[in-house]
Structures are given as structure tokens and as C-alpha cells.
TrEMBL record, chain A:
Residues 43-58 have a biased composition (Basic and acidic residues). The keyword Lipid metabolism does not apply. Residues 1-24 form the signal peptide. Residues 35-89 are annotated as: Disordered. Keywords: Signal. Residues 71-87 have a biased composition (Low complexity). GO terms for biological process: attachment of GPI anchor to protein. One of its GO terms (cellular component) is GPI-anchor transamidase complex. The gene is PIGT. This is Phosphatidylinositol glycan anchor biosynthesis class T.
UniProtKB/TrEMBL annotation, chain B:
This is GPI-anchor transamidase component GPAA1. The keyword Membrane applies. The gene is GPAA1. SUPFAM superfamilies: Zn-dependent exopeptidases. One of its GO terms (cellular component) is GPI-anchor transamidase complex. Pathway: Glycolipid biosynthesis; glycosylphosphatidylinositol-anchor biosynthesis. It is a multi-pass membrane protein. The lineage of its organism: Eukaryota, Metazoa, Chordata, Craniata, Vertebrata. Component of the glycosylphosphatidylinositol-anchor (GPI-anchor) transamidase (GPI-T) complex that catalyzes the formation of the linkage between a proprotein and a GPI-anchor and participates in GPI anchored protein biosynthesis. Binds GPI-anchor. GO terms for biological process: attachment of GPI anchor to protein; GPI anchor biosynthetic process. Heteropentamer. Part of the GPI-anchor transamidase complex, consisting of PIGK, PIGT, PIGS, PIGU and GAA1. Interacts with PIGK. Keywords: Disulfide bond, Endoplasmic reticulum, Glycoprotein, GPI-anchor biosynthesis, Membrane, Transmembrane, Transmembrane helix.
Length: 636, 596
């Protein structure tokens, strides 16, 4: 039985079926929503029943002061846990290395900490932490977080050259959180959470406020188990300007059970990691099933580092890589706290071993279906003592010769600003479907800050120079200084096509205190997010009874014929009309002069009463007047 | 402001202005010209200085050494170009790919409104090749451009060689924070226009091009490289862009700073700076440099491939290698170092170049005249127009008699703007001329016919021209001219100043009572067309390439055709400005002369 984690996939599939069957466009969105709601409802009920049952059991056990039965079914664990704390946890680490066709090399670290505990059990406060980092655990319980995904990325993932990453991330910082349905004030919790995370990761996440937070309706569905899928409990924000540096890496490493003292994390030396073309740190927390039957939930913390080393700047142009060359370290031991510690090397392009050389030779090979492709991996198990050899260190060396070709990934996107001048502009988003004969739908999510005023009536979607009407559009207009534009669309991509989404905008003139200290640099617009179920070349692995490498299990897969992909486009840098900030002084001087000279004299002319001055009277007349005045007679 | 509110003193002032009107006008004119000529005098100008902090304090170390290899590449490129008989697109794509760039191509085509005889082209098809060096630390938000035109013949191969050499060297460096786009454009400005329009997805000139597939975000600065010899003696900086736009002065400062640092001779307008400012020769050199800049800016045409970037608010300049008979030679490695240094500094930029001046004149690379200093020269000329307005006596309504010449002059202007291109086919059929000649000669014919047309037309409607009528017309013409020249000078000072220099005296002296034949001759000599002719002679004289009258006339014809082409191809505004506004304005004055 499959857990409910694949809701997103379900939503997408519903969208696809609706798009292809329903005739009237208006009906589509309604139907789309109703179907997906129904689907969610069924799953939710199912899940609810399950969780009720579990709660009953737990409560029952609590009454008897006995630990809850460990659901992973081994008798040894239940016997051993009679005296120790009830919840069990384990830690797995793995490193995948994939030589890219461009000659660059991609290294992806994945660290999984799993803990069979419930942060939200009523009346029971979790206070004893072993492998799970306490800072994150407390955060989860305090803010009732159900799922949290945060990533810090430097550089841009070049899909055209590198293919799809195991874990996509947009440039800058990205944070999305699902709260428990018990949270009443989601915005308040979100605000506090971002500030706490900002402290934990030494990042500027505290710059997340209502002007860059959105609630996407369909693009970000929970990746873990759960029954809440209303976007009211979801918050999503991107800070495209965030710079990633060692100060973010250090707190990230501290969350690992072994720190950077042992295991794979010793390879993460910042001077090498940051000497790369792409670096992405991420932390994902989500509830997962404890076992195949999904009788209880466990918390999974996944920490990942994705890094791409450049052929020309790091590799000196040679297709020859080793641990030492990449990380200036070799591996000497696994993390003692880990239950599994493995290094995978993608050797798919090299079935016979003529193009590819691995040294030392791999002890074993394994196959895994990742991103719609069956790949072969050489596996080094760090728990096995034979791996390290005589030198007691592992320094895997790769050499390969393959022709360089631009990849044609099935799905990729790009974005740019068209036009010139500082008044208007146009955002173009291009989505490529390179599949030769299959059409598939994608969800496009665009978040545009309020200071670019979108003219939504100019929104056009064209594929193969014909209008392509999206089957679902969710648009939330911006409010000045309060919230950004949110545009979500479900678009059907015809096979082998480029779909172009354009929308015009006007650049707002900000108040002078709203400009950043470097206004002439421009203002960032975060990446748009393209989420899709891409038709797979090989049957995807949907059975959950087998042990899979970690990197292949992040996005749950529900169907055999397609797999989930998320693509981020590049962020945009847009110049807004900017005053010359050295001008205020000149302006003040000029205005004062104009007011003083121009207005003053004009006012003078307008208000003065002009009189014809009479010639002064003679002495006799003056005397006579004085006498008349004294007499009280009218003057002459 | 007792002056205005006191009727007595106000009257006195008016009387003074009226009485001394003519001497005042003459004094203003002479003062304006003198002020302008004084701008080149060194003690009156400011020394250039780097305003941008990001480029000032951090000196970079240049390590480019592959000048020889760049020369080898240049020879290979030349051979390929010869073999292909044009741009070797495939070779360039491969060469850029081998250097680790993301390479894209863009093809474009454009049919010119009439054949360009200078460059011998009519139906233009071409391909731009560009490679993007992706910055490791930036998410494709900002970019810098280094471009080299692929010109037919044997010129400019070294520029492409150096461009590829720099691409290879830059690719191995880690410090790039902005994507760097290496562009080889075919058919110089047309290719550049196609690429820029494609990059910004605009279409201002009706060119057809294929959309670009790779971009690097918003372009911050661009340099265009022109090198045609293995060694050079000096580098020339070209700044004048479309419609007289100039890049930020900091870009020129950057070039000058690196020339000083590396020890390369640098020139502007092809003129080397002299140190003896107090001698007559030194001053004359500065004046010549500044006048050349003024003439080039007034022409409103892009003087290098960089000129088209400026429309998109991208600071750009062309760097041209000169190989003369001087002793001191510089090799390609040094030029490469210079470009490396400039790009590293531009890479350090946190904001767009905005700190320094956008409006300036350069009497030499180390001295500049800012807008605050040169505007009074124009202001003094414009003051004459105000003085002339002030002297007019009150008049009664005579709108109808004035409306007719106004409309007719403007219709002539519209004809001058539209007919040459529309009527070229007819002209070619009836006269033994080529298309280009047809266009130019039609333009000149309409211009000349305009002189005969409008005068006396008011008589058809309102009988004899009255004294009052021409006064009203003159007032309107002067207002018109004041607004027109004022606006032009704000956008393109040089054009405004040159026009003011010739048109203001006409406006000042013209009445129906002056000797007609002599005045007509003077007016024709001071008309916009003659101004162009004189400018050509002056320009050639300043370039130290004097020409005979016949050559001058031929050049005049080709300049007119270039002006029309610039307007149609790149959107230069000088031709419409002259034909639709300045020429009708001058015709109004011409009308006054023949009022009776």
C-alpha cells in the first residue's frame, strides 16, 4: 500500500486527464479542483482512519506505561527498547558522483536522519534527542511545522548541459513550509519561523515578509504523508538575491550527527565547495511512513549538498577527477553513527569499461531508475572494511573520454526580460518540451514583485505559433507594498515544441526610501517554477518494498510511466526608474531658488495694490487741512 | 524683484533691451562662439577622474600571455574566412565550443531600402555567432559583452583571434561574477542590430532574425574590438553612438587608466594628446579633437559597433587598433592584458555605470567638458532668440495668412522625408541613375524645389502680404526655432549647437526689407543642407585629409544616402529631424524674405 505522499502527482495527473477530456474550458478548472479534492478527500479519510487507529494504540500503551510497539516489526528492536527510549532513529549517508557530458562533475551528498517519533503527540513533549538535531526538532514542535524545505544555492543549474539534478533548487534562498492544520495564525507562525531559521542558518531569511510570500495552489504539494493539502497552510518564498557562503555551510554541517569530523562530511571543505560552478545546500524535513504498511509516521530530515565542479577552472580541462582533486580530502572512515554509508558513481555511459576508468575498481554495481532513466552505479560501501584498502583511505579516481554534446533534456525553461527603456517591459518565459511524440502538462508558477505591475490582459501562451489556452489559471493580483503577483497555470506542452508565455509589465516608481542601497544594480524577480510529470523512457520503480539509494527516493513516484521534475528558470534583474540620489541637494537648491525668486515676485505682483501716487500738496494746503482736521470738517 | 513690479524701472529695462537689441545679439553670438572655443582650453576644463568606487580602488593584476596564440588563431580564422568567402560559422562554433563556451548562432536578413554603395550591399543575409562564458557565481542575471565584427576582406582578423584567445583565458578563471558574451557579428552594424534586437526581443526597424537561444541576463557593459594588424602603435577609443548618445564617462576613464598602467599609446578621434597646453599647437590640437567629437556626435550615426548598445542603456565603446609609422609598437599580448584588466574591473561593478557623466565633450582623454560647462555656449545663442522675441511689437490677429506658409513648409518637409525612398523606382525608370543616386538626387531636388514653393503662397489666400503678417510669421518662426533647438541641444548638444550657429543669425537679420538677392544667397549658404556640406569639409580638414570640391560633393551625396540609411536601418533620428522640423522652420524664414 502506498503512502499518501504522492498527492502532487495525483493532482497533476488529474489535471492531465481533465485537460484532455473536458470540452468547456471553464468547466475544466472546476472539475479539476473537484477531482483533485475528491482524490485528496479519499486519501485523507484513509489516512485519518489510520492515524486514529495509531493514536488509540499509542494512548492505550501510554496508559500502561509501556513503549509503543515498534512498527518496523523486528522482534529485536521491541525487546531492546523495553528499557531504552521508545523512539528509534537512524542515520544514513551517501554520495553520488555523476560525470556530466560537458566534462564537469556533479557530486550530490545526501544525509538522512530518520526518527520514529511524534512531535505533536498530545501531552508528551519530546525532549530527548539523539541523532535528530535538537534545534530543528524544537522548531518543528514550536511552530507545528508539518513539512519544511529550505535551500541555499549559488549559481544556476544548467539544464541544457548537465541534465536534471537529483534535487532542483533556485538560485538564492528558497523556503517552503506546510504547517499543521491545527495552526490558527499561519502568517504569524511563518513570520517567526523565518526569523528563527534566519538565525539557525545565518541567512537573510528574515527578509521574507508578505511582499515575497505566496500560497501556491498546486505547484508545491506536500512530499511527505499527511492529510492537509489546502494551500492555506502552505507558505512559499524565494530570495533570489541571497548570497551563499561559508557562514551558511558551517551551521548546516553542525546539524549532522558526526558534524564534519567523520564520514562523508569530511569532504565538505568550504574552500573547495565554493570553488565550483554550482553549489546548493538544502534541508528537508517531512513526515514519512515508518514502514511499508505505513502504520505510523516517522520524521525524516534530509540534508543535501549538490555541487558541480567545473572542467576548466577546477579540472584544468582534463577529464580526470578524484576525491582529492575535487575536495582536497580523501575518505578514511564512515560516520560511526551511520547505519549506512555509501558512495555511488554513475557508470552508465560505460558498459564495457572502455570509455571510463575507475580506480580502485568498484566492489559492486547496482541499478536504479532515476529521473526516467535506468542508470548503473558503482557502489563503494564505507561500512565494509575492505573498501579503504591498504592505505586506509579511499580516493576514487575517474577518467573518461566522451564527446561533448549539448543535452536535450525533455523539459527545460528559460526566462528573460524583453524591451528597453524604463517604462514598460515584457517577461518572456520559454518552456521546452523536447519529447519527440508525447505531450505533457506542466504547472508554471510565477511570482513577480509588486513593483513590476503586470498587465495580465496581455498574458499570452503560444506553442508552435498557435495560442495554447491554459486549462487552469490561478492569478492573484499584487497589492502595492503588501503582496506580490502570483500566477499559476496548467499548460499542456505539445510534443517537440517551445511554449512561450509572455506578459507585459510597467515599472513602478518607488518611494525614495524604498530603494535598496544599490538601486542601479536593479531589482530581482525570483525564478519561475515549472513542475511536471514527464513521460519516462523506462518504467519507473514504484514498488516501495526494496531498498533504494537515497537520491532516487526524494520525489515519491506513483506511476510507472512518468516521473516528477521541477525546473527553475533563471531569476531576472530588472532596472526600475531610479532617481539620481546625488540630486536631492541640487533639487533642493533649485526649488528654493525658484520659489524664492519666481513665486515670491509673482505673489508680490498679485497681492500688491497699485495706486497712482499724487503729487504732494503744497504747504498752504497742508496747513489748511490741519486746521480743518482740528475743526472736524472733512479734508480738502 | 523690484525690477518687475516697478513700472518705471521695467520700462527702462525694456527700453534698454530694445535700443541695444542688435549690439546685444551680436555680443551674445560672439560670446557663445568664444565660450565654445574656450572649452578646449586646458585651464578651463576638468581633469577626468574615476567616479565609480567599484572600479577605482581595486587594481587588478593582468596575466594574459597568449597573444602569440591569438595571432595563430587569427591566421586560422583568416584562412577559413577566405575559404568560405564569408563568415566561417561552423569553424567559429567549433572554436568557441573547444574553449568551453556555450555557443549559439543567430541568422538574420535585411533588405535595405536602397542599395548601400559605400559598403556594396542590398540584400543582407548573415549569421552572428556568440559564445557565453557562464559565471560560476551568478545565476545569469548580469552579462558583459566583448564583440568583434567579422568584416569581409583581410581586416579585423586579429580582433577575432584575440577575442577567442581571451575567451580561452577567461574560461579558466574563477572570479567571474557576470556572464561574458563573446560575439562575432557579421555585416557589422546590421548584424549587431539584429543581435541586440534578438537579445531584447524588440523589433524597431523591421529586420527579420531568428530568436536567440541563450542569454545572460541584463547586459551591463560592452566593448567592441577592431584590430587589423599583428602589432599596433596606438589604440583609439570611439564613443559616439546612435543619435549622439555617449556611454558613461567612467568607461572612457577606465580605458585611459589601463592605457596608462600598461603603457599603451591611446588616442581619441585619432588625435594624440599633447602636453604643451599653453602653446598654440597644443590648444589647436585640443580644439581639433573636440570639434571632431562635436561633428561626429552631431551626425547622430553610430561610429562603431558599440553605438547601437546605447539605446538599451548598455555602456559601450569601440576600441580600435591603429598601426601607423610610429616607433613604439605594442603586441597583441599587451592589448589582451588591457582588455583583461578592463573586463575584470567591469566584472567588479556592483551597479550599472552611473556615477559619472553621460553628457560631456572630450578635448583629450584626460580632460573633459561637462554639460554644465558647455551648455552656456548654447544658452548664449539661444538668448538671441529670446531677445528677438522681446523686441517684437504687439500685433493683431493674422492667423490665416500665417497658417498657409506653416502648412506648406511642413508638407514640403514631409515630402522630403518620404518621397526619396518611395519615388526611387520611378526615378530609376525615367533617369539614367542608380537607386542610391535616385534617392539622394530626389532628396536634393525636393530640397531645392522647396525654396521655390512656399513664398508668396499666402497671397493666394489673403491678398497682399501685410507688414503685420510677416511680423507674426517671424515671431512664430523664432518661437518654433527656440523650442526646436532647445530640445535638440538637450538630447544632442552638438547637433543643436551647430544648427543654432547657422540658423540663429538667419532668424536675427531676416525681414522682407533687406536686399533680396544678397540675403537669399546668405540664407541658402546658412541653410541646413549647406551646413552639412560645410561640416563635411571641416571634418575632412580636421581629419587631415583635405578634399577637393568635387570629392566634397561626392562625399556630400554619400553622406545624405548614409543618413537616410541610418534612419531606416538603426533608427537614427537626424534625418527625420532635419527634414520634418528644421528644414520647414528654415523655410518659414525664407518665406519672410519673399513676403512682398
Amino acid at each position: 500500500n502506498l503512502c499518501t505522499a504522492a498527492l502532487l502527482a495525483a493532482v497533476l495527473v488529474c489535471g492531465l486527464t481533465c485537460a484532455s477530456t473536458a470540452a468547456a474550458e471553464e468547466a475544466i478548472t472546476e472539475e479539476y479542483e473537484s477531482i483533485s479534492n475528491a482524490n485528496e478527500h479519499v486519501q485523507a479519510q484513509d489516512d485519518y482512519a489510520r492515524s486514529q487507529k495509531r493514536r488509540e494504540i499509542t494512548e492505550h500503551d501510554d496508559d500502561q506505561n509501556e513503549p509503543p510497539p515498534s512498527s518496523s516489526s523486528s522482534s529485536s528492536s521491541s525487546s531492546s527498547s523495553s528499557s531504552s527510549p521508545p523512539s528509534k532513529d537512524y542515520f544514513k549517508e551517501e554520495l553520488v558522483i555523476r560525470p556530466l557530458s560537458s566534462g564537469d562533475i556533479y557530486a550530490s551528498f545526501q544525509f538522512q536522519t530518520r526518527w520514529d517519533t511524534d512531535f505533536f503527540a498530545p501531552g508528551k513533549k519530546v525532549s530527548h534527542y539523539r541523532l535528530f538535531p535538537k534545534s530543528l526538532g524544537q522548531l518543528m514542535s514550536k511552530f507545528s511545522v508539518r513539512e519544511m524545505h529550505v535551500s541555499f544555492t549559488q549559481g544556476y543549474w544548467r539544464t541544457m548541459q548537465w541534465g536534471q539534478p537529483f534535487l532542483p533548487a533556485p538560485p538564492g534562498a528558497e523556503l517552503w513550509v506546510w504547517f499543521q492544520d491545527s495552526v490558527a495564525d499561519v502568517d504569524g507562525a511563518w513570520k517567526e519561523l523565518t526569523n528563527v531559521l534566519s538565525g539557525i542558518f545565518c541567512a537573510s531569511l528574515n527578509f521574507i515578509d508578505s511582499t515575497n510570500t505566496v500560497e501556491p495552489t498546486a505547484s508545491f504539494k506536500p512530499l511527505g504523508v499527511g492529510n492537509v493539502t489546502h494551500q492555506r497552510f502552505l507558505r512559499y518564498a524565494v530570495l533570489p538575491r541571497e548570497i551563499v557562503c561559508t557562514e551558511n555551510l558551517t551551521p548546516w554541517k553542525k546539524l549532522l550527527p558526526c558534524g564534519s569530523k567523520a564520514g562523508l562530511a569530511v569532504l565538505m571543505k568550504s574552500e573547495k565547495l565554493f570553488h565550483s560552478s554550482f553549489l546548493s545546500l538544502a534541508v528537508h524535513i517531512r513526515p514519512v511512513c515508518q514502514d511499508w504498511g505505513c502504520k505510523g509516521t516517522a520524521w525524516e530530515l534530509r540534508q543535501t549538498v549538490n555541487v558541480v565542479f567545473d572542467l576548466h577552472t577546477t579540472g584544468q580541462g582534463k577529464r580526470e577527477w578524484s576525491f582529492f582533486k575535487m575536495f582536497s580530502r580523501t575518505l578514511t572512515e564512515a560516520c560511526p553513527l551511520a547505519t549506512s554509508s555509501k558512495v555511488y558513481i554513475d557508470v552508465t555511459d560505460n558498459p564495457q569499461g572502455e570509455l571510463f576508468e575507475l580506480n580502485p575498481a568498484a566492489p559492486s554495481l547496482t541499478q536504479a531508475v532515476v529521473l526516467g532513466d535506468r542508470r548503473t552505479y558503482a557502489v563503494y560501501d564505507l561500512m565494509a572494511s575492505g573498501t579503504f584498502g591498504l592505505l586506509r583511505s579511499l580516493n576514487v579516481l575517474l577518467r573518461w573520454k566522451t564527446p561533448v554534446d549539448m543535452l536535450r533534456p525533455l523539459l527545460h525553461g528559460e526566462r528573460y526580460v524583453a524591451g528597453y527603456g524604463l517604462q514598460t517591459g515584457e517577461i518572456h518565459t520559454l518552456i521546452y518540451n523536447n519529447h519527440p511524440y508525447r505531450a505533457f502538462p506542466v504547472l508554471l508558477l510565477d511570482i513577480v514583485p509588486w513593483y513590476l505591475r503586470l498587465y495580465i490582459h496581455t498574458l499570452t501562451v503560444t506553442s508552435k505559433s498557435r495560442e495554447n489556452k491554459p486549462s487552469y489559471i490561478h492569478y492573484q493580483p499584487s497589492k502595492d507594498r503588501l503582496r506580490p503577483h502570483l500566477l499559476e497555470m496548467l499548460i499542456q506542452l505539445p510534443p517537440n515544441s517551445v511554449t512561450e508565455v509572455t506578459v507585459q509589465f510597467e515599472r513602478a516608481l518607488l518611494k525614495w526610501t524604498e530603494y535598496t542601497p544599490d538601486p542601479n544594480h536593479g531589482f530581482y524577480v525570483g525564478s519561475s517554477v515549472i513542475s511536471a510529470l514527464v513521460p519516462s523512457v523506462v518504467a519507473m520503480d514504484t514498488s516501495y518494498t526494496l531498498e533504494h539509494p537515497l537520491f532516487s527516493t526524494f520525489f515519491p513516484c506513483k506511476e510507472e510511466s512518468s516521473y516528477f521534475v521541477r525546473v527553475y528558470t533563471e531569476p531576472l534583474l530588472v532596472n526600475l526608474p531610479t532617481p539620481d540620489f546625488s540630486m536631492p541637494y541640487n533639487v533642493i537648491c533649485l526649488t528654493c531658488t525658484v520659489v524664492a525668486v519666481g513665486y515670491g515676485s509673482l505673489y508680490n505682483l498679485l497681492t500688491r495694490t497699485f495706486q497712482v501716487e499724487e503729487p504732494s500738496p503744497g504747504v498752504v494746503k497742508r496747513l489748511a487741512n490741519m486746521i480743518r482736521y482740528l475743526r472736524g470738517v472733512p479734508l480738502l | 524683484m523690484g525690477l518687475l513690479s516697478d513700472p518705471n524701472r521695467r520700462r527702462a529695462l525694456t527700453n534698454l533691451l530694445t535700443r541695444l537689441n542688435t549690439p546685444l545679439c551680436i555680443v551674445c553670438y560672439l560670446a557663445g562662439v568664444a565660450w565654445f572655443m574656450g572649452l578646449a582650453f586646458e585651464p578651463f576644463t576638468l581633469r577626468t577622474y574615476m567616479s565609480e568606487n567599484a572600479m577605482g580602488s581595486t587594481m587588478v593584476e593582468e596575466r594574459f600571455l597568449a597573444g602569440e596564440r591569438a595571432l595563430v588563431t587569427a591566421r586560422e580564422f583568416a584562412a577559413q574566412k577566405k575559404k568560405m568567402g564569408g563568415m566561417p560559422v561552423d569553424w567559429l562554433v567549433k572554436a568557441m565550443q573547444a574553449r568551453g563556451l556555450e555557443v549559439f548562432t543567430q541568422s538574420f536578413s535585411r533588405t535595405l531600402p536602397f542599395p548601400d554603395e559605400n559598403k556594396e550591399r542590398y540584400m543582407v543575409h548573415g549569421t552572428n555567432v556568440y559564445g557565453i562564458l557562464r559565471a560560476p557565481r551568478a545565476p545569469r542575471t548580469e552579462a558583459l559583452v566583448l564583440s568583434a565584427p567579422c568584416t569581409p576582406g583581410s581586416s579585423n582578423n586579429q580582433a577575432v583571434g584575440l577575442l577567442l584567445g581571451l575567451a580561452q583565458y577567461f574560461r579558466g578563471q574563477m572570479y567571474w561574477a557576470k556572464d561574458i558574451i563573446f560575439l562575432v557579428n557579421e555585416h557589422d552594424l546590421i548584424g549587431m542590430q539584429a543581435w541586440l534586437e534578438g537579445y531584447h526581443h524588440t523589433n524597431t526597424t523591421g529586420m527579420s532574425w531568428t530568436p536567440l537561444e541563450g542569454r545572460g541576463g541584463s547586459i551591463q557593459a560592452a566593448l567592441s574590438l577592431e584590430l587589423s594588424s599583428d602589432i599596433i602603435t596606438s589604440l583609439d577609443l570611439v564613443l559616439e553612438g546612435l543619435n549622439g548618445q555617449l556611454p558613461n564617462l567612467d568607461l572612457a576613464n577606465l580605458f585611459y587608466a589601463f592605457c596608462q598602467k600598461i603603457g599603451v599609446l591611446c588616442t581619441i578621434q585619432g588625435k594624440l594628446q599633447r602636453n604643451d597646453w599653453d602653446s598654440a599647437a597644443g590648444y589647436s590640437q585640443a580644439v581639433q579633437t573636440m570639434l571632431l567629437m562635436v561633428l561626429k556626435q552631431a551626425s547622430g550615426r553610430p561610429w562603431g559597433d558599440h553605438g547601437l548598445f546605447l539605446r538599451y542603456h548598455i555602456e559601450a565603446a569601440s576600441i580600435r587598433g591603429i598601426n601607423s609609422f610610429r616607433q613604439y609598437k605594442t603586441d597583441l599580448t599587451t592589448v589582451g592584458k588591457l582588455l583583461e584588466g578592463m573586463f575584470r574591473k567591469l566584472n567588479n561593478l556592483l551597479e550599472r555605470l552611473h556615477q559619472s557623466y553621460f553628457f560631456y565633450l572630450l578635448p583629450s582623454l584626460s580632460r573633459f567638458v561637462s554639460i554644465g560647462y558647455y551648455m552656456p555656449a548654447f544658452g548664449l545663442l539661444a538668448a538671441i532668440l529670446l531677445l528677438l522675441v522681446g523686441m517684437r511689437e504687439p500685433f493683431g490677429p493674422g492667423v490665416l495668412s500665417v497658417l498657409t506658409p506653416l502648412i506648406i513648409s511642413h508638407l514640403t518637409g514631409v515630402a522630403l522625408y518620404t518621397l526619396p525612398i518611395m519615388a526611387q523606382q520611378t526615378a530609376v525608370e525615367h533617369f539614367p541613375v542608380s537607386e542610391t543616386e535616385a534617392v539622394v538626387l530626389t532628396a536634393i531636388a525636393i530640397y531645392t524645389a522647396g525654396l521655390a514653393l512656399p513664398h508668396n503662397t499666402h497671397r493666394v489666400l489673403s491678398g497682399e502680404g501685410t507688414e503685420e503678417g510677416w511680423r507674426v510669421l517671424k515671431l512664430i518662426a523664432i518661437f518654433y526655432m527656440a523650442v526646436l533647438l532647445g530640445c535638440t541641444a538637450l538630447i544632442n548638444f552638438s547637433l543643436g549647437f551647430i544648427l543654432a550657429l547657422t540658423l540663429v543669425p538667419v532668424a536675427a537679420f531676416i525681414t522682407p526689407h533687406v536686399p533680396r538677392v544678397l540675403s537669399a544667397l546668405v540664407m541658402v549658404l546658412l541653410s541646413p543642407g549647406s551646413t552639412l556640406l560645410f561640416s563635411i569639409f571641416v571634418y575632412q580638414e580636421l581629419q587631415e585629409a583635405p578634399i577637393t570640391l568635387l570629392e566634397g560633393w561626392n562625399l556630400f551625396l554619400s553622406v545624405i544616402s548614409q543618413g537616410i540609411l541610418d534612419h531606416n536601418l538603426y533608427g537614427s533620428l537626424v534625418y527625420p529631424l532635419i527634414s520634418l522640423l528644421v528644414y520647414p522652420c528654415w523655410l518659414l524664414l525664407w518665406n519672410i524674405l519673399f513676403w512682398k
